[in-house]
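Rotation project, supervised by the postdoc (A.L.). Task for the rotation student: set up a whole-complex structure prediction and record inputs and outputs verbatim in this book. Inputs entered:
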Amino acid sequence: MRFYESILERPKRVVAFLLLITAFFGWHMRKVELNNSIEELLPSHHPSVLMDKELKHVFDSREMILIGVTSDDGIFNPRTLQKVKDLTEQAWHITVTDPSDAYVLCSWATVLGGRNDRLIESIVAGGLTTADRGPVNNLLIQAKSDAEVDPEFTEFLEELQLKLSPLSDVISLADVDNITGSEFGLTIEPPMETVPKTEEELSQLAATMFDNEMFVDLLVSPDSTGAMILAELSFYYDDHLRIADRVFDELEALTQPYRGPEEIQLAGVPMVNVKTTTYMSGDMVRLTPLVIVLVMVVMFLSFRMVKGVFIPLAVVLVALVWTLGVMGLVGRPITLIVAFMPVMLIAIGIADGIHLLTEYKLLWAKFHDKDRAILGTMQQLARPVILTSLTTMAGFGALATSSLRSITDFGLFTSIGVFAAMVVSLTFVPAALKLMKPPRPVRDAQTGLRSGLAIGLEALGRVATQHRRWVYAGTAGLALLSGLAITRIEVGSTMVGLFKEDSEIIQASRMIQEKFGGIEVMNIVVDTKTMDGLKDPDILGAIAALQDTLESIGVVGYTVSLADYVKRTNLVMNGNDPVFNRLPRKSEIVTEVDWIERGGKEIEIEREVEVSGRDLTAQYVLLYENAGGDDLTKLADFDYSKANVVVMIREDYTPILRDIMQTAQAFAAAHFGSDIEVTFAGCSTLCVVADDLIIPGQLKSLGTAFIAVLVLLSLIFGSVRYGLVGLLPMVLTVLLVFMLLSITGLRLDAGSTLVASIVLGIGVDYSVHFLSRYRSLRRTGSDFREAVRETMDTTGRAIVFNSLAVAIGFMVLLLSSFWPVIHMGWLVAVNMVLSAVLAMTLLPAVIGSGEVEQPVAVPERDVERLVTA
Amino acid sequence: MKTYVHGTDVLMLGLLTGFIAMQEPTGREVMELYKAQDRTRNISADETMTLVDARGRERERQFTYVTSTDTDDNRKMLIRFLAPADIAGTGFLAIEHSDREDDRWLYLPALRKSRRIAGSDKTDDFVGSGFTYEDLESEKLEFHQYTLMGSENVDGVETWVIDAVATDPQRLEDSGYSKRDLWITKDHHVLIRARYYDRAGAFVKELRATDVRQVPGSDKWRAYRMTMEDMRNGKVTILTVEEYGVDKDVPDSYFSERYLKRWR
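Outputs recorded:
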């Protein structure tokens, strides 16, 4: 009590000190970023994550934005083609600079002491436009070579350069490498340089497009009703989410005037992620205040005083700031899962404040002395507040054992938030109560309701203790049903499936998946581990066969690899003879021209000679590079030892993606030599990996949570038996969570997997409160029936209010834009109420069975402290 | 009177010569010095081309080349790759013309075919290296405007810095560059550095020529190592010359499509 007395001696200092800490964390809060990349979900050392990073570097591959231009009466008409051409050209010129960039650049000019004044002046003059790409590039090169230049300036310039040229490539039928043979050998030029006007030219263009297999399903839909423009970002979108977001907006704005009668839609993995971020920020902005308002209303209704609203609210808000501050300090971003930690924290953290204020109000009415009432409150409740915080922290902390990074973060930061709420509750609340006016006695408006509730609870307790067998039978039945239901749960997730049906991104993705090869990309990296290994006709042939195998799967819409380019070159270098629409064989027969002397005259002769297919392949590649083709860097690495096979898929449901991976793996095992390594990368691979980590991760976290909670409960009650009894309702609740998932046909994904842990973390408090009150009543002389009745009337009532408050808080999630969040909202809400009901039926039934009826010796003073609510 | 005039003339001439001696040469004059030293009847070399990517991985090719320049400053060039084995025999022939577009052929031994390369494609990279066909052309003074930007000491060597811009409209249109900056040494008039600016004015490539020596048995100075760095992707192409041969006898028949195809 010394602690609380000293708080009461200098409440202002305590509040000021807490404000200072809050300001410190608030300052670090600004560094917290939103990040939704799938990589954030995964552990950074996972082989697939490493492979994906490697892939991006080796093949210089970056994410694409897909712009689909569709017209029901076909795209091969001058109007639509003109639009495709214009959009392709204009996409090149988009910039996403901020108005402040020019000022920042000017302010750097002064810091640099005039060294680059002229260059900077010329850049800033006329605003930042595409014309400044060159000068900014030059300034950056200068800055990089100058050791005296502040690295921050170089960083700023690098970002400015990205903003000035955010796209590194724009591909469409108006700008793509089309390999054709001509009198000049290999010609590489776009299929459409000027928009054709006559019928003949139009059908010629259509023929050109369908003649090149690499274009169909990618740049033109097989039914000629769609043309695609692929815009490649010049940066990795997860490094610069904000810029990526702007690029998307710019592209969307760019396409607006071109819409109608053609439909123009934007999709692609970066877009889905950027949209997720946009919607997520929207959700946070919308839902967090809503939770706050809802909680304020609930509290005003129960306390009928402003203080009753202000104090618990201040507790959770301060806890929230601390938690976000810690996130900023350790540099962790807010991901889709972590985003709902604030809502959760408000729903959970408010409970401590409610308990403290209820007690204070009661004691003030009794003593009419502020200090006595506050000290009494703290004496009664400090321990339960600490205990329930610890059990909740254990429940959430167990999530840290998950191998999914986002879930680890969610568990850790929610635990930190609960801890912060506890610290603030135990320090700020007494100080604030001391500084504020004492409550006015108010007539209890809810007496009627409360007595109704009391009667109901009393009846529930009576039924539970008198019809134990029924309770046991029901419990066993539920457990059995849950067990059966769990075996039927489907594991799988989809990125696009996160959004509601009517959202633009779903519409766009659907359209592109229907017309073209798909939006989901899988990369299969074939590593021969030898320089120029890919030029071996056998290996190239096996890669082509792998592509054929994959393309026979219905959902695989398109594949491309080095093999396609070599095949195409072979065709056009042999006069487009369809016989040569194949890869070079191990050895090939070619005709050579030679000049020999015959009868003193030099004559020209032709003869057939055998050449190696490997040399032919190597020289085709050289010819392609020489003709200015630059697509190959995306498909083969620098020394032609690794190939990147790009597979486009029309579905993004993980079990389907896993099937494709397994097919490719089986094929590789059978047809590639043991010295060739085949690995998977790309977004779809990462989604599958994330899924594979969910089930074991979830079981591990749950197991850890159960053990941690059991240990805590046993310590609190000084008895393992009591620990087991307290855990029982939680075991059943968790089983029910899985049963609900199964019954409603929901999939086990990153969102739903959390529900069990959330329910466990919050619900275990009910056991703690219930058992504490029951035991203290028994010790003070009440008999079993009386103790249960009294516990139901006091603690039971608090449990009902608490579970309803949490349920209402989580119901707010129903307003989210994401399905997993909506599902999480109602699942937690329903299960919190179920958990409360289970605690109040199972606990009286079990403790009544005599097994744990005998109170365990606990020192008197502890018992007093254990009295709650 | 006559003597007086004569005296004035002498005085004026003296002043003028002194003035010129103190003055820097013009850009064009520097380039003429460079051209005079660069010009040979023919030159041959055995070279190694090393391609280095941004991650430091290397790919090597060996080739031999020979050029011959006629009195109109038109150059013929034959390049033949010797290694790696799968491209050995690949040849490149370029013949410059004063009155029409240059001719360029590429010969691929596995196809037994030579292919003409269109003149408009001179911005394409030569066999995937950092050098474009344009970079391989000989410097044509009459089609460019050269401005002396000043003097600079590059690694201990005094140089003139020249800004070169194409003036010929056709050349300007076909070129991948808006301008080039050239560093010419003051001692032997060798090009030791060049910077290339793309059509948007961005500095995109830098050539550094080092190991400048006098070719044994000749009065010509040459760089034995040339490094072209692409500022956009960090890729570097290094040319190392084993040996130069200046003004050896080279038969004109070397520079024919027929000779190009003669490789076994």
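Student's summary: The CA atoms of residues 101 and 790 of chain A lie 68 Å apart.
Supervisor addendum: Residues 269-303 of chain A form the longest helix (35 residues).
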